[in-house]
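Deliverable D2.4 — example input (structure tokens):
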């Protein structure tokens, strides 16, 4: 087993043998995939096994693995330089594409990951308001900046507790964690602490602890309370940006966030993040203003080129989002029947080209992660392992959402369904 060899080698010198924890596949009782190449909707491992990929690098690959348009331009760029440490034409081009398509972004700053984008957005919010507190929600993910690795404490809304060793109590106490879909908690928090809140941050559509669709009223209440109390509204569109449409969740819910964070799709599979907002706020960023933020590889030309080609394609093909959504509905409907036919209850939440299979029968909308029962989590582990054996790679946790891309043709998806079924029946 070559996979086993590589995992053993990795485990001797890398924590858990991986560069990001979920890749260990521990939560589904699986074994890490050791990828050697990928194309379209397929991923191949070190043993030459091919998998139909529903994880798609956790979101960036909306055009599939290595789409020709992106690869061709990347090849050219490699010969033209891989990093300049200066302003480059490619940054300007990608910035223009973003500003001209995202309704809430007038000015943009590039960084190297979604984590960095969120970290910088929070600094900007604190710098702008002169306040310390940040409000976030249980069941969202905003990357691994210290202030975001905080979960709700029991009872007192003011005391967040750290969800990682190494995050100080002082930091955790400056993050307030509330329940999703709870308008009263939000109002009470603002009534008590409104004058100290720098910002509220929420994912455009929470998609990191399952796909937790929030209703319009909740999103607009956040926006309104921020406005009333002079806090900033940060919409973390790292997943939803260019995934639910060109205008992201900002358009989907018709919002006007103060700061938007982006990542994943805007890098077309290369490491990128960005944050942006109204021009007057962005003028507070160095070198124009007092909020410092920098990066040796920020605006990296390879990443910019991959982003440019991806966004261009998404803009040029007017039907692309409709087609992706139709495919997602067809596939999830078929998957639901297949599971039912095999005696497995399921609710499959979907939006745009995202879907999330919950292996329980839910009569209510799932808006918070605690609505998923432990039985459903175990069943997902079983489904994951049986699907892997047949060559289908579902995301490696019951709380990770699946992503479809333009490379997931009807043929590929029909194949995936029969493989999943074979797995269940074997
Ligand atoms: C992925 C993600 C991040 C973190 O981005 P990285 O590039 O992994 O640092 C932040 N926020 C959201 C909503 C994400 O989905």
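Example output (designed residues):
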């Amino acid at each position: 087993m070559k996979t086993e060899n590589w995992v053993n080698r990795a485990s001797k010198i890398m924590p858990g043998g991986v560069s990001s924890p979920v890749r260990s596949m521990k939560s589904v009782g699986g074994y890490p995939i050791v990828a050697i190449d990928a194309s379209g909707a397929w991923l191949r491992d070190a043993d030459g096994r091919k998998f139909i990929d529903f994880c798609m690098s956790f979101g960036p690959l909306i055009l599939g693995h290595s789409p020709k348009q992106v690869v061709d331009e990347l090849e050219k760029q490699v010969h033209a330089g891989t990093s300049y440490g200066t302003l480059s034409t490619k940054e300007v081009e990608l910035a223009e594409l973003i500003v001209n398509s995202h309704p809430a972004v007038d000015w943009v700053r590039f960084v190297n990951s979604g984590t960095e984008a969120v970290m910088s957005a929070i600094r900007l919010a604190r710098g702008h308001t002169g306040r310390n507190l940040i409000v976030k929600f249980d069941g969202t993910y905003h990357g691994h900046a210290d202030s975001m690795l905080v979960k709700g404490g029991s009872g007192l809304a003011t005391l967040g507790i750290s969800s990682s060793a190494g995050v100080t109590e002082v930091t955790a106490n400056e993050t307030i964690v509330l329940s999703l879909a709870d308008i009263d908690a939000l109002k009470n928090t603002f009534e008590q602490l409104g004058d100290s809140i720098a910002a509220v941050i929420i994912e455009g559509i929470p998609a990191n602890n399952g796909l937790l669709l929030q209703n319009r009223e909740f999103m607009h209440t956040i926006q309104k309370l921020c406005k009333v109390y002079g806090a900033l509204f940060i919409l973390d569109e790292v997943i939803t940006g260019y995934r639910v449409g060109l205008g992201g969740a900002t358009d989907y819910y018709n919002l006007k966030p103060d700061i938007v964070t982006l990542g994943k799709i805007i890098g077309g599979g290369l490491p990128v993040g960005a944050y942006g907002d109204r021009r007057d706020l962005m003028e507070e960023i160095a070198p124009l203003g007092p909020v410092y933020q920098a990066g040796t590889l920020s605006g990296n030309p390879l990443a910019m080129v991959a982003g440019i080609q991806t966004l261009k394609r998404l803009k040029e093909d007017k039907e692309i989002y409709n087609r992706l959504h139709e495919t997602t509905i067809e596939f999830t409907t078929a998957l639901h029947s297949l599971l039912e036919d095999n005696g497995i209850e399921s609710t499959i939440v979907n939006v745009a080209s995202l879907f999330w299979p919950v292996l329980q029968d839910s009569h209510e909308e799932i808006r918070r992660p605690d609505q998923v029962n432990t039985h459903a989590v175990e069943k997902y582990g079983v489904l994951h392992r049986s699907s892997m054996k047949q060559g289908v790679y579902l995301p490696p946790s019951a709380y990770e959402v699946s992503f479809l891309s333009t490379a997931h043709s009807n043929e590929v998806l029909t194949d995936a369904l029969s493989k999943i079924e074979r797995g269940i029946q074997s």
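The first strand starts at residue 35 and ends at 39.
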